[in-house]
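User: Please predict structures.

Assistant: First:
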Amino acid sequence: MKARRLGRSAVTVSDICMGTMTFGSQADEAASHRILDRSLDAGITFFDTAENYPVPPSEEWAGRTEAIFGNWLKTKNRDAIIVATKVCGPSHGWLRGSMRAGMTCLDRHNIMKAIDASLTRLKTDYVDLYQTHWPDHDARYEDALDALDDLVRMGKVRVIGCSNETSWGLMKSLAASERSGLQRYETIQNNFSLNHRRFEDELAQVCRKEGVSLLPYSPIGGGVLSGKYNGGARPEGARFSRYLEIGGRQARMAERFVNELTLASTERFMAIAREAGMSPVTMATAWSKQHDFVASTIVGVSREDQLDEIFAAADLVLPDDVMKAINQVSKEIRYPMG
């Protein structure tokens, strides 16, 4: 694995990050620990979790992922592992946080309670990267940044970042940090994949000019780019198969990832991968890593047998002809996820 810097900070990470949002729902603790062990053996040193995990969010099991990860972390050399977690955003917006009776918001009270609870579950006295899971564009950015700045000064956090943020929100936060002399967001964790390239429209330029690193999540399009949903398939136990059964917000999310356009583009990406002699999962992971504004691509699995195709992308650089073919698909099927 290559090492890349988080923003302009001193912290470097492996260019593949193992995400954990399935731990405690789709993967039990034993399976989760096997996945983590194999990831570490493969050279992955960067691991991402959140207080709101596993998914789909539920008050019944909120925090379970961090607890599972913490039980694993305590058996390892803490200095050798970069740990990222997140504090829930506001519960009055697009998503209700599962923690603190669903009364989450990005203020000092919530941030201080959240970090102490996360550190307890993670069985460590600090996290390397602490992120706001989703933003509150109507609140003062200084309120959250002031609390996050204190966490860095207290030694509980090394670097801060944001997630699911917009160009406006990221620039607003950076301006607030500069104006008030506070720690700044060094990273942004947003959805970015072959099927969802909107980040390139504006946010990529913000990252380049402001020295902020993208940590893309769902590089396999939530599993769609593996081809497992093609032909109308609904694999048993698969994330979006379950979401469609649950209904409501989860079904709407599934329909965004699994629709006529995403399946059409996936079919063409699979053909490009076959021609290049690799799996579509390997190609999608390598493509995600092959951007100058990306520090580390966050992958996720629920079974060990899904790891090999991801690990195959570790040292892979896609040749120009493959990149050209991929870009042609993206031109002809624009924004398949909307």
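Second:
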Amino acid sequence: MHPFLAMQREMTRRHLLQHSAAGIGMAAVGSLLARDGYAANSNSSSAALPGLPHFAPKAKRVIYLLMSGAPSQLDLFENKPMVHKMRGNELPSSVQMGQRLTTMTASQAQKRLLPPIAPVRQRGQSGAWVTDMLPHVASIADELCFIKSMHTEAINHAPAMTMLLTGAEQPGRPSTGAWLSYGLGSENDDLPTFCVMTSRDREGSCGQLFFDYYWGSGFLPTKYQGVKFRSEGGDPVLYLTNPPGIDGSLRRELLDDLNRLNQIKLEATGDPEISTRISQYEMAYRMQTSVPDLVDLSTEPQHVLDLYGKDVTRPGSFARNCLLARRLAERGVRFIQLLHSGWDQHQNLPTQLKEQCFDTDQPSAALVQDLRQRGLLDETLVVWGGEFGRTVFCQGDIDNKTRHGRDHHPRCFTIWMAGGGIKPGMTYGETDDFSYNVARDPVHIHDLQATVLHLLGINHEELTYRYQGRRFRLTDIAGKVVSPILV
């Protein structure tokens, strides 16, 4: 027997009435909303939730430059004369206070103080401290807001990254980009609301794993998850190109037939994942035109390519991803997440940190400058940082000039932000004389998340989703907006 006939025979009267009522009711509501101009395509993620934004936003979109592996705040952004003075001495127990360490240094016999490996100087009118290893970021210091008092509970990479991006150390929650896609929708129906790109250090010395749940939708419908662009080889997004013998018109006919079958199943079961599948097929079809235009850099003037550095034409490089991020921002993509691995210098700090800075310094600064020159910076929030910081004491032998490093350090670290309602040319928060504990104006991960949502016009306590009997939110049960850094 035909499967649809079999299903009809097995359907009870109660099921029939439920499905029929839902179908008639939804059709009626849809026609009324369409007549009044309020209806959005139910299979599209373009529409914002009712009532959002909660208030006038300062930013329309976010570009998150995520330095995976944890940049050393002491080597990059801190001026601590006491550490220079006490080089090689043991970290005072009054500073360490018996706090948790990783298994890599908890049993280390000595915890000797290690100053920055390159000079850290004051920059611009703001006087922000930036290392010589980041000359391009140093040149735009007056456009940035440095937060030096970030802290988190997680002490290992995956839990800390998960906490930073989803608000919890355990996988399963929606990522920040998914929350924004769910709450605010998209400004461009031809591109995903949430795009992700990854890159790695040139040396390939320590590549942190990029788990899919870093840009996942968790318990939200899967249409809100990030779309990852492939860095090398083939289409930027899988299945973008038609197979041999299939042209655009034939693909459209096949897609229409497939959507009709999916719609029948959706009406029969009400499974929201079928709705997601329909919308994603349609998005993929539209992306056949929008994505090739997006990744075609031939239209970029040479001076713009030069701004991002010589790596900008290399597929998979951080520089190229930064330029693509600007092009995505121009096209109204809501959340753009760039992850660059390798900031995990346990034993190769003297050599590898410089490589990481070289890979990311010029493109990061260029992105801010490019957005400003195009009038996009005021409405685009740029965030740069890692999942935690690194220890002031040396991991390994401090007397070995090439083989030593720093361990993980969640109790204080530095990020910078620019554009999108952020006060430029300021430094917020302060660490102690050893860059070991927060001394003033602490900012927790949840506070950062609350601030990002606030800049997009969202009250972080009100963007929720009911799941397993509880209303969840990105900031869990904590978080406060860091008002002093806002314009």
